[in-house]
Fold:
Amino acid sequence: MLSKKPYRGTRDFFPKEQRLREFIFETMHKCALKYGFEPYDGPLLEEVALYQAKSGEELINDQIYSFNDRGERFVAIRPEMTPTLARMVAQIHKEELKPIRWFSIPNLMRYEKPQRGRLREHWQFNCDIFGASGRLGELEILNLAISLFKDFGANAEHFEIRINDRAVIDSFFNYLKLSEEQVYRIYKIIDKSKKVDEAALDKMIGELKLEDSTVTSLKKYLNLTSFDELNTFFSELGLSDSISEFNLLIDKLNKDYVLYDPCIVRGLDYYTGVVFEIFDKNPENRRALCGGGAYANLLQIFNEPPLAGVGFGLGDVTLTDFLNGHNLVPERVREPAIDVLFTFQDENALEISLEMANKLRDRNLSVLSVFEKLKMQRVFKVAEKRGARFTTIIGSNELDNKKIIIKNLETKEQKEFSFDDIDSIVNFVG
Amino acid sequence: MLSKKPYRGTRDFFPKEQRLREFIFETMHKCALKYGFEPYDGPLLEEVALYQAKSGEELINDQIYSFNDRGERFVAIRPEMTPTLARMVAQIHKEELKPIRWFSIPNLMRYEKPQRGRLREHWQFNCDIFGASGRLGELEILNLAISLFKDFGANAEHFEIRINDRAVIDSFFNYLKLSEEQVYRIYKIIDKSKKVDEAALDKMIGELKLEDSTVTSLKKYLNLTSFDELNTFFSELGLSDSISEFNLLIDKLNKDYVLYDPCIVRGLDYYTGVVFEIFDKNPENRRALCGGGAYANLLQIFNEPPLAGVGFGLGDVTLTDFLNGHNLVPERVREPAIDVLFTFQDENALEISLEMANKLRDRNLSVLSVFEKLKMQRVFKVAEKRGARFTTIIGSNELDNKKIIIKNLETKEQKEFSFDDIDSIVNFVG
Structure:
């Protein structure tokens, strides 16, 4: 017996869900265009070699959908967009006017254990800037992310941006005279620090066998809670210079949304500058909705000269939970909406009703034709179900007189028109 | 060395191509909404069992991208949308108000030998109606397809709809007293008939070892060129009754676009009523852009009661060739378009320029910020490249007076505004 259910970790989008998805994508699309970003997209499949060069080990070993195609090419369904983006930018960056500002909303797949906020297939809004001078690309990307949430009707009660800077952390690690191996392990520890209790954290740090003063310093860092504390801490270490650029960026950001978080490092990814995550402040859904940051060497894997970039990815699953959790989805979004429900009450009116419906469509109205005569009480039920603003009525009297009644279902106003007076009908419905 | 090229048979959509794709999808989307269709989508992966139950052998054996997932589920990247649609409709058809009118624009993959008009990844506009009475669903689907081409600016010089009817053919085969096995083989021959010369066709028919009179009749059928000839032929055979319903449908269709073609049978697919293909009339691209038809038993594989449907699928690769071949893509579609290029000529104006750009974005204008001071001659070059309608100018004088100049790049009109007079600026640019 065939299953009617979708494949594990994926979704069927019935019209109610698909209309919400379209609303979300349209809001993303409009926001990106407001910032002058240009749309792009890439293939669903890439050769696994691309991800091996660009992505983390966990992704390759446990998460990608990889297989040999019929021509024995080892390929994968895209699990993230950045490697494709790097491949595409590598083709054109020499000729393109900088900065390059691109966005995309691809579907991605990862072999995950499905749970709240995490599915195997999701869509991800990706925005990136390449070749912007100084910190201005980072500023713009952060502003774009804030704008997007505001466009969804969210405010500082709903979300916050936790921010850090890899260059700042690196200068601190440098001060601590840590080896490359130690830095690598500390990044892993920081990444996990929010998920474990203090004892476990102490144990992990203990395993590094650092000097006591280093451990004290490291723990002090991990307990920083604001930009002010970060500045005081760095000034005490004599590292004020290495934080000045980051401060310039922070100064320009809207503080309503942004806070300092020493534990945001974005794992072992390729980031080299600002790193950030956007968090849902809903106590029932405290999770990262979105992550991003700045990277210096996107094109390295193609042996191209360095091109600095900054970007973020925002998944639709967590975003939908966020919007629902804060009641930010307007009711109308999920419901159908048509201009005119075209009904008739005399079966001989079928032909004229189909003809007129097409004429109204030619005038860009959305018209739903009912194919059988419909009693009036049924008309109103169908109209409500289909989200019609107007309905037509053609009974025997109207048909004899070549007239049609059009009724505004909200105001209850109704008017009679000649069959051929399309202009007046469009005007009335318009 | 990593390849910068996309995986064979797939495409990188740089902004020029992606804007065209968005234009195409938007036109499809609007057209479907005009007919009151509702959007849906399904997962990228389905279990192969679904396609085994629903799709043709060639697809399963040679074309699908199938593999075992990490949990040993045998899955495939969707090669077509109808099986997913059937699975989804099977879940909800009992409660849904009929007819159900749904559309989707999914990305699909087939392992094809890439060639003109055929790639491994493409997007396909799918429209279907379920539970419409009589032939009215078929009529609406055909009208929707015609509307879509008209919405792209196409007319009867550009495309034609070749139409046939499986019920009509079956009544003819029934008259010829053909066995099920012979019918199966003849459908295969008809499907190939346009691709081979007469000798080859004769040979294929010869292999069926039919009676001479049957062969004569069959060849006469294959040479029909119009609805009139079809009617004469059927009337001579005494089969007029079995063509009357099809005639009723044809009567209601716009004859400018529709012609009879005895060779359109849509292979061994599940069609049971009208079948059609939309052809490009461009002599350099004479190929089917779109195929569709009516089917009686979409839900059979789920042991659900019969639900009649009719639909079509239109791929973006052939459609793009069609639009380009007839010069139907407006030039503006591929080009970037922004409202305001935000430039300054005194480097101290950076801060105010970023601030004002954000204020204009809050008013829903699309604004591209330039991050460095730009000389005037360069401003116009960048504005042209980025498709700006307006540019800003803030030199040292303007900065001193807290003024900004905004220039209409088409009319060359320019006006000066106070930094804080956002309303007037929006008005001027609006």
In short: Residues 46 and 112 of chain A are 19 Å apart (CA to CA). The mean pLDDT of chain A is 95.
